[in-house]
Write a structure and sequence with these properties.
By secondary structure, this protein is of the alpha/beta class. The protein has eight helices and nine strands. Strand 1, helix 2 and strand 2 form a beta-alpha-beta unit. The two termini are about 30 Å apart.
Length: about 270
């Protein structure tokens, strides 16, 4: 991921760690299921782009075994190496900007990126780069949010609560858009993989209702707290509205939808 426009800078350590923990709790189970559907096996060479806390890369390293290898990249990999789970012997951690830095071609049996390309204006050029990095017969799995296909707010006993949450969420969306995030590209991933020659392409969308105090709510809190200053300075919301929304997200009686996570994968034609 490029550092130039990323809204959720990992320099805000507490919020970054909370966000990574929440994302892992919310999405790892599905990610592992799709990686297994791609056939990850002992001896495979694996690439994890934007590895975050390293939880997916470590799982891949376990599946690849001693004969395999995992390259885990991030613009800021300190959360990977600092994790108490450590770095397995068959896993390498590397500072890497997927937009600016090169990748070896025909080098990997499987490549995975979650919530990376959605941020990149150059996302289609990055897709080209990832396809070139696959071995013939290799698999690419891209997972990204579509934040607009299903509204986040739900019917609530207090109608004002849903409206309040939606207003602060819209402020977050506005800041994201200004930094280059595409709210709707993920729904096109099935087509984008196919037009790059991948076969056996599948795309699945998942949305979940979450309660206040859950990992889904914790993720929203971490995101909102990190952009609070910028949103208030931009005149998008007030300090009081932020405070009320954080209180909602800690209330187990409050319910909302997660963004839709699209998981799309396909195989590069050639030898298996």
């Amino acid at each position: 991921m490029s550092t130039d426009k990323y809204l959720f800078d990992n320099a805000a350590e507490a919020e970054a760690r909370a966000r990574m923990t929440s994302l892992s709790a919310q999405h790892n189970e599905a990610t592992f299921r799709y990686l297994e559907k791609c056939g990850i096996a002992p001896g495979w060479s694996c690439l994890e782009i934007g590895a975050g806390d390293g939880s997916v890369a470590r799982w891949m390293a376990q599946k690849a075994g001693p004969a395999g290898r995992v390259l885990a990249t991030d613009i800021d990999p300190r959360f990977i190496v600092a994790d108490s789970a450590g770095v397995p012997a068959n896993m390498e951690v590397r500072v890497h900007d997927i937009v600016k830095d090169a990748l070896p071609e025909t080098a990997f049996d499987i490549i995975h990126a979650r919530l990376v390309l959605v941020w990149l204006p150059a996302r289609l050029a990055v897709l080209d780069k990832l396809v070139k990095a696959l071995k013939p017969g290799g698999w690419l799995l891209i997972e990204d949010y579509d934040a607009k296909i299903i509204p986040a707010e739900m019917a609530a006993a207090d109608a004002n609560a849903g409206e309040q949450f939606a207003k602060v969420l819209q402020a977050l969306f506005e800041l994201m858009s200004r930094r280059g995030l595409s709210h709707s590209y993920a729904r096109d991933l099935h087509h984008r993989l196919g037009e790059r020659g991948l076969t056996q392409v599948e795309s699945h969308g998942a949305v979940t209702a979450f309660h206040g105090g859950s990992p889904g709510a914790d993720l929203r809190i971490a995101n909102f707290q990190q952009v609070k200053k910028a949103a208030i300075e931009a005149g998008l919301v007030s300090d009081a509205e932020f405070g009320d929304t954080i209180a909602l997200l800690r209330d187990p009686d409050f319910t909302a939808f997660t963004p839709t996570m699209f998981s799309a994968f396909g195989c590069k034609p050639g030898a298996t």
